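Recall from the previous lesson that a structure prediction takes nothing but the amino acid sequence as input. Here we apply that procedure to Adenosylhomocysteinase from Calderihabitans maritimus. The sequence below is the only information supplied.
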Amino acid sequence: MLNESMIRDIKLAPQGRLKIEWVENHMPVLSLLKKQFISEKPFAGKRIAVCLHLEAKTAYLAKVLQSGGAEVAVTASNPLSTQDDVVAALVEEGIRAYAWYGASPEEYEAHLNKVLDFQPDLIIDDGGDLVALLHRTRQTEAGKVIGGCEETTTGVLRLKALEREKKLLFPMVAVNDALSKYLFDNRYGTGQSVWDGINRSTNLVVAGKNVVVVGYGWCGKGVALRAKGLGAKVIVCEIDPIRANEALMDGYQVMPLAEAAPLGDFFITVTGNRDVIRKEHFALMKDQAILANAGHFDVEISKTDLAQYAVGRRKVRQNVEEFRLPDGRRIYLLAEGRLVNLAAGDGHPAEIMDLSFALQAYSLLFILENREKLEAKLYRVPDSIDRKVARLRLEALGIKIDTLTLEQETYLKTWQLDN
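The prediction returns the following C-alpha cells.
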C-alpha cells in the first residue's frame, strides 16, 4: 500500500512493529475480538476510515478491523500525536495511511481528504474533523457512509450540534459516552497520561506545588486525582455548580480562574471550550508558570493572546516553549497547547485503550448489523455492548464477580415487596 499512502519514511517500520507488538500483549479484549473477527469476517467487502491519534494502540485497532475482512485507511486526528514509525508499520501490513508527525494545517487537511478519497463505508472519528469535512465539502462521499463512531467529548459536542440542526447525514455512535469509555479512558487514562506528558517535558517536581485544573468533567477528575497523588495542592475552576460542589467534596479548592491565576504553578485545561485561559489570566500568573492542555483542540489556552502579550519567545526544551512577558516573567507552554498526553507522550495506557477501542469495534459492528433500522442520528453505545466489553476485560484478567439469584432478580423487578 506504499504507493497509495502519504507517510514520512517506510524504513521506520521495524521499530513501529515493536511498539505495536508491545501494546498487543497488553490489550486482551481487542485480542479476543481479533480471534472472533478472523473467524467470522464481519467487515468483508467494507472499507473503514480511521481518524484517531496514530500511535501503537490505534495501530492495533486498525489491524483488528483488518482481520475482520475490512480494507482500512488511517489518518491522524492530531498532527503532533502521529508516530511515524507506527504509521510505516501499518503500511507494511497493507493498511493505507495518510499522516506524518508535525503536518502543517494544509498537509493535515490534505491527509483527511485522502482518506475520504478512499470512499469509506464506515468511519471512526476523534474530535469530529472527518465528519465535519464530510458535511462541508465531501457530501458525495458522505452518501456512501453507512455510519461511524466518535471517540471523544469534543467530537460528540460537534455531532450533537449537527443533529440539533438536523444536518447529520448518517448514524453515529457516541463511543465517548459509554460507561466503559469515560469512566476509565477519560478518568484514569487522561489522568495518568497527562502527567506522563508533563513530567516527561518538564522534569520538575509536582509535590508541594499548586495545580490548577480547569474543568471538572471526567477528564478533569482524573487529572486532579493524579495531581493529588503526586503531592500537589489542587485548585479546580468550573462553570457548573454541580461539578464545583463535587470538586469541593473531593477535597479540592474551588475558585474562579482569575483568583487561581496568581497561585498556580501548573495549569491544565480540560474543558472542550476555547479561550479558557486568556490575556487577563496571563497578566496575573507567577514567574515560570507552566501551561498544558488536555482538551482535544489547541484552542483552550489562547495562544494568540499569549503570543501578542509576550515580548520574546523561544524553545527551551523538547515540547516546552518559553514566553517572556514585558515585566520579565516567563510562562511556559507545553506541546504547542495541543493534547499534552499525546503530543508530549504516548497517550493513554494500553490497558485503558483496550476498553475504548473494543467499544469502537463492537459499535461499528452494531451499525453494520442494524443499518436498515438506524436513522441519521447520534446513538449511545448499546448497554449490551458496554457491559460485554467490561465483562470481557474481567475474564481476560481472570476476575470473577457475583451474579443475582432468581429471587433477587424478581425482588428488583416488583413493586410488591414482602419479607
